[in-house]
Amino acid sequence: xxxxxxxxxxxxxxxxxxxxxxxxxxxxxxxxxxxxxxxxxxxxxxxxxxxxxxxxxxxxxxxxxxxxxxxxxxxxxxxxxxxxxxxxxxxxxxxxxxxxxxxxxxxxxxxxxxxxxxxxxxxxxxxxxxxxxxxxxxxxxxxxxxxxxxxxxxxxxxxxxxxxxxxxxxxxxxxxxxxxxxxxxxxxxxxxxxxxxxxxxxxxxxxxxxxxxxxxxxxxxxxxxxxxxxxxxxxxxxxxxxxxxxxxxxxxxxxxxxxxxxxxxxxxxxxxxxxxxxxxxxxxxxxxxxxxxxxxxxxxxxxxxxxxxxxxxxxxxxxxxxxxxxxxxxxxxxxxxxxxxxxxxxxxxxxxxxxxxxxxxxxxxxxxxxxxxxxxxxxxxxxxxxxxxxxxxxxxxxxxxxxxxxxxxxxxxxxxxxxxxxxxxxxxxxxxxxxxxxxxxxxxxxxxxxxxxxxxxxxxxxxxxxxxxxxxxxxxxxxxxxxxxxxxxxxxxxxxxxxxxxxxxxxxxxxxxxxxxxxxxxxxxxxxxxxxxxxxxxxxxxxxxxxxxxxxxxxxxxxxxxxxxxxxxxxxxxxxxxxxxxxxxxxxxxxxxxxxxxxxxxxxxxxxxxxxxxxxxxxxxxx
Length: 623
Fold this sequence. Notes:
The protein is α+β, with helices and mostly antiparallel strands. It has 24 helices and 19 strands.
């Protein structure tokens, strides 16, 4: 019910508005026409796709796409679109709109567009762009949504749930039934069933198709795969060494250096260039005289706020991370060496390299296997397309043999015995339904030729039948026990059902109360409701709850499959107030919320019907 309501109650189109749909051209095969707007199959499919993705995101592993294949769900999806366009045209006909102030307030309150609880313009633009929307489009959609709410809000505000109606819905949803149950097991009946040979033979002849042994075949097959081509490629040490030299940078760890600096102004209002440079040279001279004061002088003099508090430390970095002048100085110095003044766009730097790591090249022997695999993969890619064409020709020309494909391509013939369609645990090459269909085709069975080459994943496969056994009926002696078990079950079921129906008829006639002889073997009275099945099987509880109050007391016979039957003596009803008093409050609240949603849905449907008086609606597709 919640899923249906999710589909039916008008969703917000704030981020995926109607504007995107209005570009769909009119279609003579429209599913529905709302006013002068035709709803096309393409538009319906797009909405359906969005709803499927929303449901998949909400349900995770529990998502079942088959839900969206039912006619009921498709009708409700169409109803949703119809309602949207009814609202749109109602807004237009009543000249409703929203003010700029209301628009701005609504957008600024949207959490998606906020950073630390406040509206952020860059976040707003980025999130819209991710959804393929411009601010203009989004604002038009939001403005429409606010205008649409002027149509819906009076309806939804009126959704005060009257107490009398709530009580009536509670009685419909939550009223229980007081019931006694007796199980009629098939085991006792089965023990008394005698099956004759005539019955066995008659059942076998009538149902011979059920006892067929599947067709099977012993097959040979060959597989051309990228790995089979790759395995044949041979390389010399010279090939590997040349590749290593060409790609040596890939087998090296990048050199990183750790440095610290003091950054001082090179340009400053109120100071000349000469004065600033002299000040930097003074600090440099002090450092050369006392290198141990680098951190102290950095904190006192550096204008780089990020590194100054760290004594000028910049951490490790590789080439490309810093401006060129600074990088050149750092990567040309030795560890512990102090630079001269290095001028960049930021000012004068005094630099010291404090550590060096990386830059080592892996030895050829340590990467030889990696290089060999890379070269073979590259060569395989170049050769595989041609090999696929050759494979297709060779298996076709080979007739009833794979010898030519084996010689030309270096393949290996593999075998599998007693292959049957759908057999589990097959080799990958034989699992594919296309391959099995070719193997068991009439031409393959009759001539035992190689099948055509078939693509299975990245591989190519061809197979041929060596020996074939057609589907045949299994001997009656082989299936006799299963026939006896089936007939015994059927006869026991008939006898048990006869007794169950007789007992139910007697209960309906005598209308017994507690202690009556006819109730021997029945359980004590149990109260079943939508909030709890009192330990009864689902089928029994459902049947009991479907018993109308006016029918009570009433006997019900419920089939339990291989477990026989249950005879339920539904004695009386249990008021919803009594059920709610004993149930989990959270469960009660859930059902009351559902009742409120049902009431709200009814109001929306009424609003829709009211809008139809102003806007003509024609439904052309009924699914």
